[in-house]
Amino acid sequence: MTAMTSSPGASRNDRPLLNRRLAEFGTTIFAEMSALAVRTGAINLGQGFPDTDGPEQVREAAVRALRDGRGNQYPPGPGVPELRAAIAAHQERRYGLAFDPDREVLVTAGATEAIAASLLALVEPGDEVIALEPYYDSYAASIALAGGTRVPVTLRPGDGPRGGAADRRFSLDLDELRAAVTPRTRLLLLNTPHNPTGTVLTREELAEIAKLAVERDLLVVTDEVYEHLVFDEGGHVPLVSFPGMRERTVTIGSAGKTFSFTGWKVGWITATPELVTAVRSAKQFLTFVSSGPFQYAVAEALALPDAYFTSFLDDMRAKRELLASGLTAAGFEVYRPAGTYFITTDVRPLGESDGLAFCRALPERAGVVAIPNAVFYDHRDQGAPFVRFAFCKQTPVLEEAVARLKSL
Ligand code: PMP
Ligand code: GLN
């Protein structure tokens, strides 16, 4: 940037205003693409937020908390006891995992703060952090804020274990992962179910990752915010459940995805008391606390009967089918996701090669907004032809989007 000392918006003393750690990060793609959707009136299948709110009774629980004066003042630093107890009970009920609600649970301002606080707390400048590429954009920024060095391991597109188009997925090459670990590696930053590819790491892959983490004595931060969006039988398997992982794993969850209240920003970590204490040290200077009344509501949401979680998943499964078959009919190559509410596609069969240019033009061409996966890669060429569509939208909206895309 050129120095313009007279302008407060530019720089002082020939120095750019934005520090070096953040210099590579502009506006997030989600903000850019949602703004484009608003500007053009296009259907927004870009940013991953549902277009309907979560359960009425959960919303009512938030209203009640507000009215009763629960959470209107600073809640306790670790989160309100009701929510910490509900998070621990959820881990026990779903996965048979025991966490002490007083010492092993920390409520955060969404998963985003959990990621940032974990990295700020656990990474020294110069430490290497391995992340699966394409990675959710805040990973890169949080590693940078912590002064860490990002080491991407690329998920590669190909046929799945059974072969054939229906099974196509982005896979982790375990040898590549092993080779990426050096004496400077401090931490593995994982994400399963994986945004944006929809890959769910298999039990076998998780077991190998766990073995590697134990062998090389690595810390693991695992972002499992899509834990309730695994479409295959057997459901989500938390990485922390593998041998040797309990003592080294920070698991991240979020109410935004599971209960369709992304604006409430209620997330959490579960980990050992030592890890929770470390992450809390960073978290207390980021937000200290957040979302007071919503914490009480999310406590009630986590205790909803299994029927809620099942019908949420069934609804998303039907939407996955709708959008996947629509995108296929429109000429995209579709990677049918095993988890999350995103579908990654390859635009090359449409005669395109640059997903970013494709997404910038798509609102004008077809009245739909999508996300170019390239921005989630260090090796941009690897991600160039891939484009992500979100299906957490009402059925008529998806139907209309599919009809529009057929014009391509
Ligand atoms: N991790 C992943 C993989 C995500 O997709 C998202 C956002 N949707 C987040 C973290 C952030 O979650 P939150 O909104 O709870 O901060
Ligand atoms: N996680 C959501 C997505 O992947 C968006 C979150 C955000 O806008 N930062 O689309």
TrEMBL record:
<dbReference type="InterPro" id="IPR015421">
    <property type="entry name" value="PyrdxlP-dep_Trfase_major"/>
</dbReference>
<comment type="pathway">
    <text>Amino-acid biosynthesis; L-lysine biosynthesis via DAP pathway; LL-2,6-diaminopimelate from (S)-tetrahydrodipicolinate (succinylase route): step 2/3.</text>
</comment>
<comment type="function">
    <text>Involved in the lysine biosynthetic pathways. It catalyzes the transfer of an amino group from L-glutamate to N-succinyl-2-l-amino-6-oxoheptanedioate (N-succinyl-2-l-amino-6-ketopimelate) in a PLP-dependent reaction, yielding as products N-succinyl-l-2,6-diaminoheptanedioate (N-succinyl-diaminopimelate) and 2-oxoglutarate.</text>
</comment>
<keyword id="KW-0028">Amino-acid biosynthesis</keyword>
<dbReference type="InterPro" id="IPR004839">
    <property type="entry name" value="Aminotransferase_I/II_large"/>
</dbReference>
<dbReference type="Pfam" id="PF00155">
    <property type="entry name" value="Aminotran_1_2"/>
</dbReference>
<dbReference type="InterPro" id="IPR015424">
    <property type="entry name" value="PyrdxlP-dep_Trfase"/>
</dbReference>
<dbReference type="GO" id="GO:0009016">
    <property type="term" value="F:succinyldiaminopimelate transaminase activity"/>
</dbReference>
<dbReference type="InterPro" id="IPR015422">
    <property type="entry name" value="PyrdxlP-dep_Trfase_small"/>
</dbReference>
<dbReference type="GO" id="GO:0008652">
    <property type="term" value="P:amino acid biosynthetic process"/>
</dbReference>
<keyword id="KW-0963">Cytoplasm</keyword>
<feature type="domain" description="Aminotransferase class I/classII large">
    <location>
        <begin position="42"/>
        <end position="405"/>
    </location>
</feature>
<protein>
    <recommendedName>
        <fullName>Probable N-succinyldiaminopimelate aminotransferase DapC</fullName>
        <ecNumber>2.6.1.17</ecNumber>
    </recommendedName>
</protein>
<comment type="similarity">
    <text>Belongs to the class-III pyridoxal-phosphate-dependent aminotransferase family.</text>
</comment>
<dbReference type="GO" id="GO:0016212">
    <property type="term" value="F:kynurenine-oxoglutarate transaminase activity"/>
</dbReference>
<keyword id="KW-0663">Pyridoxal phosphate</keyword>
<dbReference type="InterPro" id="IPR051326">
    <property type="entry name" value="Kynurenine-oxoglutarate_AT"/>
</dbReference>
<comment type="subunit">
    <text>Homodimer.</text>
</comment>
<keyword id="KW-0032">Aminotransferase</keyword>
<keyword id="KW-0808">Transferase</keyword>
<dbReference type="GO" id="GO:0005737">
    <property type="term" value="C:cytoplasm"/>
</dbReference>
<dbReference type="GO" id="GO:0030170">
    <property type="term" value="F:pyridoxal phosphate binding"/>
</dbReference>
